[in-house]
Here is the input.
Amino acid sequence: MKYAYLGTSGLAVSKLCLGTMTFGGTTSEKDSMAMIHRFLDLGGNFIDTADVYTGGQSEEIVGNSIRDRRSEVILASKVRMSTAGHVNGQGASRKHIMDGIEASLRRLGTDYIDLYQIHVWDQATPVEETLRALDDLVTSGKVRYIGCSNYLSWQLMKSLAVSEMRGCARYVSLQQQYSLLNREADREMMSLCLEENVGIIPWAPLGGGFLTNRYSRGPKPDQGRLSAANGGESSWEYRATEKNFDILEQVVKISEEVNRTPSQVALNWLMGHEGITSPIFGASTLEQFDENIGAADFELDGEQRRHLDEVSCLPDEYPGRFIRKFKRQI
Here is the structure.
């Protein structure tokens, strides 16, 4: 397993992050614990969960699994979504953050979280309030580093500026949807994170299972994750586009060239992409885990990466093309 520093921090994290969204749900507790132990044994150290995953069971399973190996684990969790029935049981307010950290620490069975992340921007709470609360958690030792997730570029930049101006802890990472199918971050977010040295931790690196090659052009499937009537970002309506099927065809072609699975090719492309720290991969079964972790032990060559870049890239858009046209030369 290879490692990278997370943003501006000195924190070394594995180039693959184990996602635990299904732990305690579609993934049994026994298999979940087996995956975590196998991940650590193979050199992985970065595990991501959240207070809302499977109603808190994910955090409990993760905590039980790492209790004897806590010091070697970089443990990430999140706060922001609704965890209670009352009006203040959600958001990025000081109250919800302070309530959230205590509940997460109890479920995880630990006295600190390495990376505590705001799950999504909260337009109702001043960013100064959110960052001061997070800074207090860092000062108290309950949190080591802070990150954010699902932000627009101006929201991240405003947060970084406020942290610098007020002397608060700074976001070291951004957890954002990014894959061969979802490269919207290339418009502004990727260049911002490279400029400000914010580590990018992509979620849905396989496009909700689309890049596993289980789906084909045609009617909506009646089985699998993409068959759900309300699949959110991973819905058939979002995934089953002509461009996405063209991308999938290229992934399958390259997977046959290198004798790897499409999932491994898609993950490996992300691992070698500039600005990407650790793609978050999940697995419902031990077989899926073994397949996905196999993305870490090979490298695509330059030509293969170029083909994947070209088939998946965004259209050349303003103002990016305008700025490039007038790049200063001396």
